[in-house]
Structures are given as structure tokens and as C-alpha cells.
Amino acid sequence: MQQQILHLLCTVGTCRLHFSGREHQLTAGCCMIAMASHVGSISPSPDCQLLQLLLPADWQASCMPGSSYGVCGWLHLFMHPIFQLEGDTLAVVKHDFEDVAFRSEHTPDAYREEAVKQGMRALYLDVMNAHAALFEHEEASLRSADIMSRFIRMLEAGTYRTHRDVAYYAGELCVTPKHLHKVSTQVSGRTPSYWIRQFTMMEIKHLMMHRKLTAKEVADRLNFDNTSHFSRYLSR
């Protein structure tokens, strides 16, 4: 199942939504960038004006800034997916959302994909600049950023549904588990196990709360050996 990234910007009114097992309310100026599979029902107020973009996760990765800052910025967005924009920053990001939508609808087919990517690159740069002012992003070495970027892309692609051990990811990335642990901690402040667990738990919450699946059905979807194994995972 292809993962998609949902981008929301509330410009007027309010919007209630469920994300990662909790209800949130977006007010005017609130922006949210998160995996669509982890977002439940969205209930806008009658006067709500909501800008929305939906991109495949692998396609989105090609729109990210090319520097190591882009990787750190994306990880910080994952940890803090809902944030408030104001003043000129809000106006700039609102323009970016509208520009991407315009490019998607009005650019000739031969150039549409590249035009939309250029618009998304501008959007991510503006969002990350605003986000950094709120959450203090840091840069990392290009090598560390590359390893972390590939690790997160594997998770975004849904690899956590079949593999939840750090050694597997380290092997796929051609590094040792110890080195992956060091890189992840340096770049994001979190261990590889944390990221694997976060992706897994967010999907579990979504499946149980919004798809109304039973524990056995969720365990089967995420390739746990049995419901006992699944229960032990939740307990930990």
C-alpha cells in the first residue's frame, strides 16, 4: 500500500481531526503535515477554509531540500506535525499551497510533474524555515543525513509492517546496528527503535480506532506471529 503525505493549512474557521489516536483542532493559521494513513476523520466548521495537498511519500521525498537540513527538518515535522503560522510566514505558506494547486491544474502535461515538484520544494523550504523558528532544527553531516533519510523512507514505505528489528534496517542500509543507532540519535535525538515503534503504533491506533479492526485483524495486517505477540508488543 503506497503511503501518502497529507498537507493541510487552515486559513479561516476551525477543523477537528483525529491524528495518532487523539483529537486535534486546527484553527486559522494552523498547518499540518503528516502521513495520511495516520489521520482519521476530518470535520471542518461551516466557515472553515482548508487548503489540502496529498502526495505519495516516495514522490514527496524527491521534493525535499537537497541539504542535510532537509532531512532534519522532515524529522522535526514528523515529531511536531501540527504548528501555528502567523503574519508574513502564513501568507507565504498559503501562497505556496495555492501555487502548487494552480500548477497541478494549469501546467501542460509534459511539464506538470516537474512544475509541481518545484512548487513543493518552495513550500517545504518555507515551512521548514517557519518550523525551525519554533522547534530549533539542526544540521547533520551529509553522510548521516543520507543514512537517516533512507531509513525513514523505508518506514514511510511501510517496511515496519514486516520488519521491526533495528538489525534488519542496518543491514539494508549497509551499516552496523550500532552505527545506525549513533546516526539516528545524532540527527533526530531519537533511537532507530523509537522511529520503528512510532510508525508501528500510529498505524495500530488508526486501524483500531478508525477502521474498527479487532486485535487479531490488526496483528495479521502488521504480521505479528499471533495476538499474544501483538499484546506483548503493546504492553512494552
Short description:
By secondary structure, this protein is of the alpha+beta class. Helices cover 56% and strands 19% of the residues.
Main traits of this protein?
236 residues; alpha+beta; Jelly Rolls; Arc Repressor Mutant, subunit A; 2 domains; four-stranded antiparallel beta sheet; three-stranded antiparallel beta sheet; 19% strand
CATH superfamily of the largest domain: Regulatory protein AraC
What is the helix tally? 10
Strand order of the largest sheet: 6-1-4-7
In terms of per-residue confidence, which ranges show pLDDT below 50 for 5 or more consecutive residues? none
Q: Biggest β-sheet, characterized?
A: 4 strands, antiparallel
The CATH topology of the largest domain comes to Jelly Rolls
CATH class of the largest domain: Mainly Beta
Instruction: Give the number of domains.
Output: 2
Strand content: 15-25%
Seen as an oligomer or otherwise, the chain set is single chain
- Binned, the helix content reads 55-70%
Average residue pLDDT:
87
Quickly give the CATH architecture of the largest domain. Answer: Sandwich
Which value, in Å, is the CA radius of gyration?
Answer: 18 Å
Instruction: Give the beta-strand count.
Output: 7
The class by helix and strand makeup works out as alpha+beta
Question: Can you walk me through this structure?
Answer:
The protein is built from 10 helices and 7 strands. With 236 residues, the chain is α+β, with helices and mostly antiparallel strands. It has 2 domains: 4-135, Jelly Rolls; 143-235, Arc Repressor Mutant, subunit A (Orthogonal Bundle). A 4-stranded antiparallel sheet has the order 6-1-4-7. A 3-stranded antiparallel sheet has the order 3-2-5. Strand 2 (14-19) and strand 3 (22-27) form a beta hairpin. The chain starts with a strand and ends with a helix.
